[in-house]
Write a structure and sequence with these properties.
The protein is an alpha+beta fold and 354 residues long. The chain has eight helices and twelve strands. The protein has a seven-stranded antiparallel β-sheet with strand order 6-5-1-2-3-4-7, covered by helices on one side. Strands 9-11-12-8-10 form a five-stranded mixed β-sheet.
Length: 354
């Protein structure tokens, strides 16, 4: 019995001992057949397990060694909130942006701004005819080839292709405004971005702060894009949803009636942004949903970008819903946060009569 206990103790000691870098010490010996002598430290006398007092002391020593073994292995890691990384998404047909119009730029855009839809264009038309408008809600319609060609013709007739190309700098865009010579200003605030892709892609930037100085032709173009809404639009049905989750009830929803989170296997606390950095370069804080679950969760909100208090396991969370557009992925949102679509040259699948 004593020999078995000795082996257990030696095993526990070896678990928390460092790997030796010098020759091992002289092996422990037994002083008598019925008395076990434990390995000794410099301040610990040999223990004789045949006596009652030493056996009691051995139990205390054994409990202490167990604690040392656990400590040597390190504390149990504290569970961290799960953030959705960027794994490979299910391949989707690539959507080419034919036309885009919206207000972009200004102050540095945070991930929180992206979640509330500040980076969503007011109008985006894909080459396959899908049109999405950003009004109070997201609206969509599939345009026919005739409707697409009519829109392109109208843009051309308004003089869009006679406007200067540029990167938004006032020096390049001076012809867009009626400004006195030597005017200094612009460049730092938000700007309207008008993009028409295709065989000859072109983009134009218009400084929002200089609206009062626009030449009439540019003002007409902006008014046309702002007011464009063909008949037959209906609410956009996204198949992917990103939710930004904040613990607790925030000030702006203090009087809102909460809704119950319906998913028993998905807990909002696992995806909440507890440190509120919004965006850390590698991860986007939030819960990413796809497929059949999206319509059910969308029904909890009054609309896209409208925050809702949700209750999960008795805890309140302020949740911001952000549907993804057809050309967006989690990666494109991360890499082009607050950005717009870039010019792209391609030949559309449709042809317009000349």
């Amino acid at each position: 019995m004593g020999y078995i206990v000795y082996l257990i103790l030696v095993f526990l000691l070896s678990a928390c001992a460092p790997i030796p870098t010098s020759p091992p010490a002289t092996p422990t010996t037994f002083s008598a057949p019925n008395a076990t002598v434990l390995p000794t430290a410099s301040n610990t006398p040999p223990v004789d397990l045949t006596t009652t007092s030493d056996w009691a002391q051995f139990q205390v020593t054994l409990d202490a060694l167990k604690t040392q073994v656990v400590t040597a292995k390190g504390p149990t890691p504290t569970p961290t909130h799960t953030l959705f990384p960027l794994p490979t998404e299910i391949p989707r047909p690539k959507k080419q942006v034919l036309i885009e119009y919206g207000l972009f730029g200004g102050l540095p855009t945070r991930f929180e701004d992206v979640i509330i839809g500040s980076d969503i264009p007011d109008l985006i038309l894909y080459s396959d005819g899908q049109l999405i408008l950003h009004k109070k809600k997201l609206l969509e319609k599939n345009l026919s080839t005739t409707e697409i060609c009519s829109l392109l013709t109208k843009i051309e007739d308004l003089g869009y292709y006679h406007l200067p190309d540029g990167n938004g700098s006032l020096a390049l865009n001076y012809p867009l405004y009626n400004l006195s010579p030597g005017f200094a200003g612009g460049d730092d605030g938000p700007q309207y971005h008008i993009l028409v892709n295709g065989p000859d892609p072109k983009e134009v930037w218009v400084d929002y702060a200089l609206n009062d100085y626009l030449v009439p032709s540019v003002k007409k173009i902006l008014q046309f894009f702002s007011n464009y809404q063909p008949a037959g639009m209906h609410e956009y049905q996204a198949d992917r949803l990103l939710m930004y989750i904040r613990p607790g009830r925030k000030d702006w929803v203090i009087n809102q009636s909460p809704a119950q989170w319906p998913e028993a296997d998905i807990h909002l606390s696992d995806y909440a942004d507890v440190s509120n950095p919004g965006y850390d370069g590698s991860y986007l804080y939030g819960l990413y949903l796809t497929g059949d679950m999206v319509p059910k969760i969308n029904a909890l909100f009054e609309g896209p970008y409208v925050d809702q208090v949700l209750i999960d396991k008795g805890q309140e969370f302020t949740v911001s819903p952000r549907p993804l557009l057809p050309n967006e992925t989690r990666k494109t949102i991360r890499d082009n946060i607050g950005g717009r679509t870039y010019p792209s040259q391609f030949t559309p699948s449709f042809q317009c009569a000349k």
